[in-house]
C-alpha cells in the first residue's frame, strides 16, 4: 500500500507536457525545454550565416556561448545559488547566442567576452538574475559595445560568393580554420575587400553626403556585394552581423516558435508593422530619399528582433495588447533612428527604450476581470426574469 | 451586441479514454463503512443514531443542523458500531466525526415513500424533499442543493443550467451517467426546473463526449430541455464560464448567479434528485471514476458512501506501478489524499493514482514573465503579479489585483513553465486574509466587551457607593433616633 | 551688492515666515497619534506589555519605547496596523505569533473560586461560586490575567486547534 506524503501537495496535480501542440493553445512545458526550442529555431539562420561568413564567425559564436556559461556560473556561485540547477535553464545560452548574432562576424575574441560580461553579469545577474532584468541583455550589451568600441562593432564582412550575380570583384579568399583563429585572436588586419558597408549604413552615408539617389543605384555602387534585391537580401547574401543575415531563415525559426506556442504573435507583428507602415508612407512621399518597406524589413536586425528579441518575455509586457503596443513602439523607434538618427541601425536602441517603458505599459494595460468593469467595479446585476 | 466568449483556459490532455469505455459497475459492500458527518459545505450533520443501533439502507443517521447543512443516510442496512473520529478526505488530514457502520449483508432498503406524481408537488415541497434526501452539489463543490434551490426561489430564475461539462481530465463519471441513465437525468432536470420555476433549461456538455450528447439529446426530446455542446476547454465546467458560454451573460463580481436569474446544477445532482423523488431513495452512493496511469483497471463504479478509498482501490483494481500521487477528485482541482484510509463522500467524483510521468512535476523556478498565466486565466487576472505580491507579503495588494475573483481552477499553475505554485499561493493568501479579517473582528468584539465591562464596573462601583451612602445615612438616622430616644 | 543681498534677505525672511506659520497651523498632535493607536488596541488593559493600561502602552510606542509588536493579544494584525500608523517598518520575525490561543480550564482542578471571572477583561469566563467555570471561545483573548490569579493553577493558555472549517493552506515552501 503506497503511503501519501504529508502535508499533501496543492493542486493542480498535473503539469503541461510537451506532447500537445497547436498555434492556439499554449504548449510550453518547463523552462529548459522552452529554451532548447528557441535555440533550435535560431539554428537554421545561424548555420546559414556560418556558411556565408566563414569559420571566424563560427569561432566567435563558440566564444560567446562558452564565455556566457562561464560568467553565469561565476555569478551564480558568487550569489550562492545552485549552479547546476540554474545553468540548466539554458537562458544564458540563448542570450549569448542572440548576442553572437548581433556582433560583426569577424569581431575580435575580447569583444565577445566583454559582450557576454555586459549581458550576463551587468544586465542580467546584477539585476537579480533570470526574470528580474529590466533590459534585454543581448540588446543592452550590443548598445554598450557599439558606444564603447565603434570601430570594432562596424566591421561588416562581405558574404561568400555563391550566386552567379555576385560581383567578380571579390578579391579575397575565405580563411581556413587556422587563419580564422588568427583573425579572431590576434589583431591582424582584415584582408582587403573583406569588409563592406551594410545596406542600411550605405543608404545613410549617401543621404548624409547629400547625394540622394534611388535605392537600387545607390547600393549597387558599393563594391564587393551584389546590388540590393528582395531575393538576395531575403536569403541573407549581404554584409552585416550574423543575425542580420537571412531574413527568410530567421522568419522560419520564428514561425516554428509561434507554432509551438512559445511566442505570441503580438510583439513580432507590432514590430513589423511599426517599421513597415512609416517606411511605406515616407517612401510614397519621396521614393528617392526613403527606401521602401521591403528594404527596411529585410535589412538590419529587423527579423531577428521581431522573432527573437521583442519576444523575450522577461523584458516585454505580459498582456497581449501590451505586447502589441510594445512591438509597435520598438518598430517605430527603430525606423525613426534609422531614418533620422545618427546610427544606421536603431533596433537595439529602440528595444532598450521600450524595455524601460514596459512597467508603464503593464501598469496601464491590464485585462478586464470577469464580472468587473475595466475600472474594477463590479458589473450591475441584471436579472432578465425579474422585470417580467 | 456580440456574444462574450469564454477567455483563457488551457487544454490539458483529457485521458478520458482510460475509463470512459467501461460501463458503470456496482462496487460491493465492504466490511465496514465510515460514513462522514461532513460530506458537504456548511455545518456538519448531527448524528441521530447511537452505537449499537440497527439501521436500514436509506435510514437517516444524521440530520442537518443550521442553515447550510445536509443530512446523512445509511448507505446500507447494518449495525452502527461507533460514532468516532476518522481522517477526513481533506488536505489538512484533520479528523472528522464518522458513523462506523457494519453492513449486515442484506442491503435492505427502509420504507421508500416516493410521491405518486413528483411534478404535482409545489416547488417548495420539491426543495424540501431534495434537501431531506441529503443531496449536495455532486460536481465536487458539495454545496447543499436544497439550500441553493431555496435561495434561488427568492430571486426569480430565468435559466436553469445543467453542468455536464466534466472538464477535469481523467474523470468520466458524468459522461457514463449521461450515456447510461439519460432518461432519469432528464426527469431530475425537469424536477429542478419545476422547483425553481425556471423558464428555460440548458444542458452544457463538452464536445469531447459525443455519445453523452446524443444520449441526452435523445432523452430530452419533447421535454423543452436544450442539450448544447460546448467546446472542450478547461475550466468549462466552472459555473461562471459555463454560464458565459451558454447564455453570454457575465455574472457580476461578488454576486451569486441566482441574482442574475441563473442557477447551475450538476448532471449527477439532477440524477440524485430524480432518484430521491421518483424512487424515494436518498443519496447513499455515487459514481466514482477510478483512473490514472498507475491503476491496472480504470473504470467507473457506483460506490456506497463511506467505502474506504484504500479498499476501493485494492478491490476494484490494483497498481501496475507505484503511484506518485493519489488524488480525490480531478487532477486540476482535486486534493491529494493525506492518507488512503479516507472514506468516499458525496463529492468524490474520482479517485486517481497518477504516475511520476503524468504529474510532470519539477521544482519551481524563477518567473520569466512569459504571460502564459495571464493568457490562461479564465477570470482575466494577472496571476504573476498577484503571486509576486503574495511572496513579498503584500497580501492587500494581491487582493486589490483581484485575488477574490480567482476561482482557483489551477490553469495558471498548470501552464507555468517555471512550475510556480500559483494556485497554492492564492489559496494561502485567501486563507491568511480571512484569518486576518477574523482577528480584526475579534478585536472589535473584544473592545466592545472590554468597554461594556468597564461601564459595568463603574456602575457597580457607583451602586455600591450609593448603597454605602444609604446605609451610612440609615445608620446615622438610626443613631440620631437613638440619641433622641436617649435624650428623651 | 545691495541689489543682490536685499532680495535674498527678503526671500529668506519670507520663507522663514511661511515655515513658521506652517509649523503652527499644520502641527501634528503627538497625543492624537497615541489616542489613535489606543483605538487600535484591544482595550482590555491586560498589562502583558508591561504597561499598566492600553493608553500608557500607546504613548510608549509613540515615544519609541516599545516596538509595534508589543501587544500579544492583538497579534500580527494589530502590530501591522500600528506600524502602518507610525510609518515604521515592522519586523514581524521579532514576533512570536504562535497563532490564536485560548484559556483552558482544567475541570478536575477548578474549585469554583470565581477569582478568574472577576479579573477577565472581556467577561469571557462564565461561572459562579463553587461551580465549574466555562470559557467563551469567542470572547477570550488569551491575555493570561486569569492564569495569574487562579489559586489552583488550573487555567492555562493553549493554542486553538484548527478544524476542517478553520484550517487554511500554509505558504508554499519553495
Automatic annotation (TrEMBL), chain A:
<feature type="transmembrane region" description="Helical">
    <location>
        <begin position="347"/>
        <end position="365"/>
    </location>
</feature>
<keyword id="KW-1003">Cell membrane</keyword>
<keyword id="KW-0285">Flavoprotein</keyword>
<dbReference type="InterPro" id="IPR004338">
    <property type="entry name" value="NqrB/RnfD"/>
</dbReference>
<keyword id="KW-1133">Transmembrane helix</keyword>
<feature type="transmembrane region" description="Helical">
    <location>
        <begin position="322"/>
        <end position="341"/>
    </location>
</feature>
<dbReference type="GO" id="GO:0022900">
    <property type="term" value="P:electron transport chain"/>
</dbReference>
<feature type="transmembrane region" description="Helical">
    <location>
        <begin position="257"/>
        <end position="281"/>
    </location>
</feature>
<feature type="transmembrane region" description="Helical">
    <location>
        <begin position="113"/>
        <end position="135"/>
    </location>
</feature>
<keyword id="KW-0597">Phosphoprotein</keyword>
<comment type="subunit">
    <text>The complex is composed of six subunits: RnfA, RnfB, RnfC, RnfD, RnfE and RnfG.</text>
</comment>
<dbReference type="Pfam" id="PF03116">
    <property type="entry name" value="NQR2_RnfD_RnfE"/>
</dbReference>
<keyword id="KW-0812">Transmembrane</keyword>
<comment type="similarity">
    <text>Belongs to the NqrB/RnfD family.</text>
</comment>
<feature type="transmembrane region" description="Helical">
    <location>
        <begin position="58"/>
        <end position="79"/>
    </location>
</feature>
From TrEMBL, chain B:
<dbReference type="GO" id="GO:0022900">
    <property type="term" value="P:electron transport chain"/>
</dbReference>
<dbReference type="Pfam" id="PF10531">
    <property type="entry name" value="SLBB"/>
</dbReference>
<feature type="coiled-coil region">
    <location>
        <begin position="433"/>
        <end position="487"/>
    </location>
</feature>
<keyword id="KW-0813">Transport</keyword>
<keyword id="KW-0411">Iron-sulfur</keyword>
<feature type="binding site">
    <location>
        <position position="409"/>
    </location>
    <ligand>
        <name>[4Fe-4S] cluster 2</name>
    </ligand>
</feature>
<dbReference type="InterPro" id="IPR017900">
    <property type="entry name" value="4Fe4S_Fe_S_CS"/>
</dbReference>
<feature type="binding site">
    <location>
        <position position="367"/>
    </location>
    <ligand>
        <name>[4Fe-4S] cluster 1</name>
    </ligand>
</feature>
<keyword id="KW-0677">Repeat</keyword>
<keyword id="KW-0997">Cell inner membrane</keyword>
<keyword id="KW-0249">Electron transport</keyword>
<feature type="binding site">
    <location>
        <position position="370"/>
    </location>
    <ligand>
        <name>[4Fe-4S] cluster 1</name>
    </ligand>
</feature>
<keyword id="KW-0408">Iron</keyword>
<feature type="binding site">
    <location>
        <position position="416"/>
    </location>
    <ligand>
        <name>[4Fe-4S] cluster 1</name>
    </ligand>
</feature>
<protein>
    <recommendedName>
        <fullName>Ion-translocating oxidoreductase complex subunit C</fullName>
        <ecNumber>7.-.-.-</ecNumber>
    </recommendedName>
</protein>
From TrEMBL, chain C:
<comment type="similarity">
    <text>Belongs to the 4Fe4S bacterial-type ferredoxin family. RnfB subfamily.</text>
</comment>
<dbReference type="Pfam" id="PF04060">
    <property type="entry name" value="FeS"/>
</dbReference>
<feature type="binding site">
    <location>
        <position position="46"/>
    </location>
    <ligand>
        <name>[4Fe-4S] cluster 1</name>
    </ligand>
</feature>
<keyword id="KW-0408">Iron</keyword>
<keyword id="KW-1278">Translocase</keyword>
<dbReference type="GO" id="GO:0051539">
    <property type="term" value="F:4 iron, 4 sulfur cluster binding"/>
</dbReference>
<dbReference type="InterPro" id="IPR050294">
    <property type="entry name" value="RnfB_subfamily"/>
</dbReference>
<keyword id="KW-0004">4Fe-4S</keyword>
<dbReference type="GO" id="GO:0009055">
    <property type="term" value="F:electron transfer activity"/>
</dbReference>
<feature type="binding site">
    <location>
        <position position="150"/>
    </location>
    <ligand>
        <name>[4Fe-4S] cluster 2</name>
    </ligand>
</feature>
<keyword id="KW-0813">Transport</keyword>
<feature type="region of interest" description="Hydrophobic">
    <location>
        <begin position="1"/>
        <end position="23"/>
    </location>
</feature>
<dbReference type="InterPro" id="IPR017896">
    <property type="entry name" value="4Fe4S_Fe-S-bd"/>
</dbReference>
<feature type="binding site">
    <location>
        <position position="54"/>
    </location>
    <ligand>
        <name>[4Fe-4S] cluster 1</name>
    </ligand>
</feature>
<dbReference type="GO" id="GO:0022900">
    <property type="term" value="P:electron transport chain"/>
</dbReference>
Amino acid at each position: 500500500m503506497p503511503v501519501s506524503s504529508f502535508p499533501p501537495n496543492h493542486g493542480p496535480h498535473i503539469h503541461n507536457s510537451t506532447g500537445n501542440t497547436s498555434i492556439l493553445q499554449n504548449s510550453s512545458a518547463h523552462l529548459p525545454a522552452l529554451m532548447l526550442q528557441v535555440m533550435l529555431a535560431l539554428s537554421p539562420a545561424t548555420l546559414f550565416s556560418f556558411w556565408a561568413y566563414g569559420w571566424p564567425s563560427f569561432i566567435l559564436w563558440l566564444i560567446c556561448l562558452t564565455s556566457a556559461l562561464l560568467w553565469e556560473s561565476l555569478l551564480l556561485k558568487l550569489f550562492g545559488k545552485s549552479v547546476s540547477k540554474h545553468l540548466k535553464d539554458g537562458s544564458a545560452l540563448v542570450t549569448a547566442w542572440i548576442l553572437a548574432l548581433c556582433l560583426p562576424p569577424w569581431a575580435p575574441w575580447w569583444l565577445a567576452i566583454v559582450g557576454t560580461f555586459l549581458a550576463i553579469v551587468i544586465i542580467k545577474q546584477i539585476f537579480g538574475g533570470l526574470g528580474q532584468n529590466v533590459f534585454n541583455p543581448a540588446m543592452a550589451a550590443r548598445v554598450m559595445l557599439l558606444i564603447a568600441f565603434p570601430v570594432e562593432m562596424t566591421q561588416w564582412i562581405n558574404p561568400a560568393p555563391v550566386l552567379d550575380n555576385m560581383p567578380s570583384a571579390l578579391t579575397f579568399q575565405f580563411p581556413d580554420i587556422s587563419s580564422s583563429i588568427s583573425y579572431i585572436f590576434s589583431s591582424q588586419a582584415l584582408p582587403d575587400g573583406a569588409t563592406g558597408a551594410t545596406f542600411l549604413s550605405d543608404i545613410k552615408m549617401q543621404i548624409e553626403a547629400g547625394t540622394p539617389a534611388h535605392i537600387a543605384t545607390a547600393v549597387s555602387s558599393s563594391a564587393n556585394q551584389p546590388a540590393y534585391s528582395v531575393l538576395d537580401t531575403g536569403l541573407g547574401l549581404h554584409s552585416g552581423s550574423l543575425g542580420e543575415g537571412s531574413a527568410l531563415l530567421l522568419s522560419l525559426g520564428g514561425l516554428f516558435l509561434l507554432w509551438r506556442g512559445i511566442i505570441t504573435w503580438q510583439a513580432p507583428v507590432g514590430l513589423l508593422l511599426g517599421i513597415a507602415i512609416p517606411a511605406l508612407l515616407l517612401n510614397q512621399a519621396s521614393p528617392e530619399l526613403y527606401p521602401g518597406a521591403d528594404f527596411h524589413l529585410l535589412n538590419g536586425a529587423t527579423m531577428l528582433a521581431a522573432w527573437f528579441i521583442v519576444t523575450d518575455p522577461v523584458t516585454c509586457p505580459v498582456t497581449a495588447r501590451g505586447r502589441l503596443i510594445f512591438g509597435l513602439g520598438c518598430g517605430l523607434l527603430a525606423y525613426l533612428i534609422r531614418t533620422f538618427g545618427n546610427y544606421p541601425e536603431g533596433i537595439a536602441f529602440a528595444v532598450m527604450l521600450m524595455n524601460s517603458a514596459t512597467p508603464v505599459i503593464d501598469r496601464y494595460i491590464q485585462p478586464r476581470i470577469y464580472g468587473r468593469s475595466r475600472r474594477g467595479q463590479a458589473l450591475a446585476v441584471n436579472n432578465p426574469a425579474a422585470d417580467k | 451586441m456580440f456574444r462574450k466568449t469564454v477567455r483563457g483556459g488551457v487544454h490539458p490532455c483529457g485521458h478520458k479514454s482510460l475509463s470512459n469505455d467501461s460501463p458503470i459497475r456496482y462496487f460491493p459492500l465492504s466490511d465496514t463503512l465510515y460514513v462522514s458527518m461532513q460530506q458537504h459545505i456548511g455545518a456538519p450533520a448531527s448524528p441521530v443514531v447511537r452505537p449499537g443501533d440497527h439501521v436500514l439502507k436509506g435510514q437517516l443517521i444524521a440530520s442537518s443542523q443550521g442553515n447550510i447543512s445536509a443530512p446523512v443516510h445509511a448507505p446500507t442496512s447494518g449495525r452502527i458500531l461507533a460514532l468516532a473520529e476518522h481522517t477526513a478526505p481533506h488536505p489538512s488530514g484533520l479528523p472528522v466525526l464518522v458513523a462506523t457502520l457494519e453492513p449486515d449483508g442484506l442491503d435492505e432498503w427502509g420504507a421508500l415513500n416516493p410521491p405518486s406524481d413528483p411534478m404535482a408537488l409545489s416547488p417548495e415541497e420539491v426543495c424540501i424533499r431534495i434537501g431531506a434526501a441529503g443531496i449536495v452539489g455532486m460536481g465536487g463543490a458539495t454545496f447543499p442543493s436544497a439550500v441553493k434551490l431555496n435561495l434561488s426561489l427568492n430571486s426569480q430564475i430565468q435559466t436553469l443550467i445543467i453542468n455536464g461539462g466534466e472538464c477535469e481530465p481523467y474523470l468520466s463519471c458524468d459522461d457514463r451517467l449521461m450515456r447510461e441513465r439519460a432518461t432519469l437525468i432528464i426527469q431530475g432536470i425537469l424536477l429542478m426546473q419545476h422547483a425553481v420555476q425556471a423558464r428555460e433549461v440548458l444542458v452544457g456538455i463538452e464536445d469531447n463526449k459525443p455519445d453523452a450528447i446524443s444520449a441526452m439529446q435523445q432523452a430530452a426530446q419533447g421535454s423543452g430541455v436544450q442539450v448544447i455542446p460546448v467546446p472542450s476547454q478547461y475550466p468549462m465546467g466552472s459555473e461562471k464560464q459555463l454560464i458565459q458560454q451558454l447564455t453570454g451573460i457575465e455574472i457580476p463580481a461578488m454576486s451569486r448567479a441566482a441574482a442574475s436569474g441563473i442557477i447551475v446544477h450538476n448532471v449527477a445532482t439532477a440524477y440524485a434528485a430524480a432518484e430521491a423523488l421518483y424512487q424515494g431513495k436518498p443519496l447513499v452512493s455515487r459514481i466514482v471514476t477510478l483512473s490514472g496511469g498507475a491503476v491496472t483497471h480504470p473504470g467507473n463504479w457506483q460506490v456506497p458512501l463511506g467505502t474506504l478509498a484504500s479498499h476501493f482501490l485494492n478491490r476494484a483494481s490494483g497498481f501496475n506501478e507505484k503511484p506518485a500521487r493519489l488524488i480525490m477528485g480531478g487532477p486540476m482541482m482535486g486534493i491529494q489524499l493525506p492518507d488512503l484510509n479516507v472514506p468516499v463522500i458525496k463529492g468524490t467524483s474520482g479517485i486517481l493514482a497518477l504516475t511520476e510521468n503524468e504529474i510532470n512535476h519539477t521544482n519551481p523556478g524563477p518567473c520569466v514573465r512569459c504571460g502564459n498565466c495571464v493568457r490562461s486565466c479564465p477570470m482575466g487576472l494577472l496571476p504573476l503579479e498577484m503571486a509576486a505580491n503574495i511572496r513579498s507579503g503584500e497580501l492587500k495588494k494581491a487582493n486589490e489585483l483581484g485575488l477574490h475573483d480567482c476561482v482557483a481552477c489551477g490553469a495558471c499553475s498548470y501552464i507555468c513553465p517555471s512550475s510556480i505554485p500559483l494556485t497554492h499561493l492564492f489559496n494561502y493568501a485567501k486563507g491568511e486574509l480571512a484569518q486576518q479579517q477574523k482577528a480584526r473582528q475579534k478585536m472589535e468584539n473584544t473592545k466592545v466587551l472590554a468597554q461594556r465591562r468597564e461601564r459595568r464596573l463603574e456602575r457597580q462601583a457607583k451602586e455600591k457607593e450609593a448603597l454605602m451612602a444609604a446605609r451610612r445615612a440609615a445608620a446615622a438616622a438610626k443613631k440620631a433616633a437613638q440619641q433622641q430616644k436617649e435624650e428623651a | 551688492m545691495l541689489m543682490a543681498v536685499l532680495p535674498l534677505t527678503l526671500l529668506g525672511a519670507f520663507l522663514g515666515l511661511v515655515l513658521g506659520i506652517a509649523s503652527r497651523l499644520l502641527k501634528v498632535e503627538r497625543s492624537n497619534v497615541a489616542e489613535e493607536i489606543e483605538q487600535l488596541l484591544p482595550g482590555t488593559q491586560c498589562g502583558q506589555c508591561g504597561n499598566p493600561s492600553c493608553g500608557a502602552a500607546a504613548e510608549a510606542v509613540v515615544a519609541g519605547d516599545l516596538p509595534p509588536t508589543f501587544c500579544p493579544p492583538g497579534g500580527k494584525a494589530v502590530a501591522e496596523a500600528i506600524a502602518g500608523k507610525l510609518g515604521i517598518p515592522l519586523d514581524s520575525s521579532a514576533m512570536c505569533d504562535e497563532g490564536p490561543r485560548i484559556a483552558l480550564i482544567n475541570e478536575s482542578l477548578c474549585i469554583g473560586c470565581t477569582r478568574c471571572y472577576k479579573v477577565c477583561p472581556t467577561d469571557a469566563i462564565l461561572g459562579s461560586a463553587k461551580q465549574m467555570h466555562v470559557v467563551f471561545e469567542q470572547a477570550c483573548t488569551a491575555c493570561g490575567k486569569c492564569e495569574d490569579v487562579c489559586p489552583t493553577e488550573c487555567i492555562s493558555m493553549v493554542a486553538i486547534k484548527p478544524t476542517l472549517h478553520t484550517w487554511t493552506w500554509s505558504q508554499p515552501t519553495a
